[in-house]
Each structure stands twice: as structure tokens, then as C-alpha cells.
Amino acid sequence: MKKIMTCIILVMLLLSLLGCSRNDVNSGNTPNQESSEKTLNITLADYGSSKMPPADAYRYAVEYLKEKSGGKINVDYVPDGALGYEAESIQQLMDGTIEAAVLGTSTFSKYTNKLEVFQLPFLLNDYEKELAAFESPEGRALLDSVEELGFKIITFTENGMRNFANNARPILKTEDLKGLKLRIAPSNMLQNAMNLLGANPTPLNYAEIYTALQNKVIDGEEVNITSLYAMKHYETIKYFSEIGMYPFPAVVVFNLDYWNSLSEEDQNLIMEAFKEATKKELTEYLPNFEKMAREECEKAGVEFNVIEDKQAFKDLVAPLYEEYKDKDPDIAAFIKMVEELKN
Fold first, then answer.
1. What percent of the chain has pLDDT over 70?
2. Using the 8-state DSSP alphabet, how is residue 124 labeled?
3. pTM score, two decimals?
4. Residues facing 183 on adjacent strands
5. Which one-letter DSSP state was computed for residue 342?
6. Which of 37, 107, 109, 306 is spaced 20 to 30 A from 115 at the CA atom?
């Protein structure tokens, strides 16, 4: 009887072990399945205004990703500098405390001069050329260069072509800029450009401009019509002189380590979403907003004029072209490619 009981116990133990083995095999598949279906929660910090056209593009990308991924990729879009402005955002990206951020190309000036060329005065003078330039192999080489800093640039959006706005006088000729204290985005290249044009460039963060205009710390700014309206600068500006000096792109940037941790499928879907959003912004959100912004600024009493003699301004900043070509062969290749686009 004892032998029979012993055999029964041994059989039960064996069956139990086999069951555990089968469960281990099954559970070995489960984590991978759960991992592939795990929700990605991505924070996208934006220093820019939630009222600006790029914000519409980011919201479009968020919904696009949610729909196409079946809810797997969730982007928490945080605009209006709520998580910090550009200097804070780029540091948080470096530290890996946020996954992604929107940054002006000029923000990288502290670390590299390669992205400054996107704002070389009068090089990219319309949005169609800008899109072609960003998507070109030469443009991609410049954008990819920031990977050595720990960043991955996905695509860009556009805030609008830059012009002159001030409270002293309409800008009709180069002499009208002489001595004007104009706010610029912090950038070595933009500072040099304004010096060559005869203005007195004053770097200020985006959020400081309105108060600086109001308190007459600055006479004006180089600015796009979209920001003039969205940030209510029209309340403190008298003259807006159109010249279309350069675009003001912002790039969507990921922490490189985080980006590399994503599957190729997820990477491709994220890039697809933001590129679609960029095209929608350039063809719909931006032109519509620019039209509305101009109308509202005119109603508020801002006086508009078009600068007819652009060549005189171009001649003054011409030395920058040779300077930047000499800085790096990738920059030289980019300038050459864009100049050929213009013909």
C-alpha cells in the first residue's frame, strides 16, 4: 500500500512539474507580447504658443498617431513653455527627463553652427523651397549631425517668414535700421546679420519680448506676422515692414537614447505622423493664419509697408554666405543646393 501511495505522489509531482514547465513556456511569450503592445507615453514640450500654426500641426500629429497606432502611441503635447522655454527644454532632452521637444534651429547655436544656416538671410525665401531644403540629402545631413549631441530630429514646422517691426519708423531702406534696438532670437548668426544691417541686436527669450517692447527696452524686433498677432505684440508695435528675410523653423527633437529604444515600426509611424503634420501646416494652417493675423493687426492700427529694394539688404549680409561656407563642407553643400533651387 505504501508503494502504491508513493507512486501516486510521484506521478502527481511529475504532472505538477510538467504543468509548471508548460506555464513557463507560455509566460515566456507573454512579456514579449505585452512589450510589443505596451503603450508609449511621450511628452512633447513646446516653448511656442498654443495659438500658433505649428501647434495645430502638433495636435494633428497627436491624433494621427493615436488613430494609426490604435491608441498605443500617446503623445502628451505641452505648449506655451509650461515645461520651460528652449534653453530649459534642450537641457531636459539631454538629461532624458523628457522624451521630445520643439526647438527653434537657433537654439542649437550654443552647441553647433550647422543648423544656423537654415536662417541665413534671404537663402530660403519661400515655404516650398524650405520644405525641399529640409527634405534634401544636404538638409538631412545637417539635421542628422546633432545625433552626436544626443538628439534625433524628426521633422520641422514653420512659424513664418521674418520681417521688421518697430515703433520708430517704417523700414524702407537699409539706413532706416541704423541704431534700432531690435530683439533677435539668441543666435550667433542672427546677431552677426543684424550687425551687418546696421541694427543693434538684442537677444531675448520669446516670453520677454512683450514686456521689453512695452517698457521701451527695445525699439522693435525681427518677427513673423504670426507671432506679432498670437503674442499680442501688435499692441505695442506701430510699423511692420515686409522683407521676407528668412523663415523661422522649429524642429521636433527626440532624446536619441529614447528614440533608439523604440521599435522600427514605431519610429516609422512617428516620423510619418509628424511629416504629414508639417505638410498640412505649410499648405493650410500657416497660410490661413498669416492672412487672418495681418487683417487683425491692421485693424489694431499697425502700419504695413513692403520693402522694395531687397538687394541692398542682401548685399550687406553677403559676407555671411562665404563665412558659413568656410565653416563646414556640409554647410557649403547645403547653400549650394539651395542656391540652385532658386534658379
1. 89
2. S
3. 0.84
4. 202, 221
5. T
6. 306
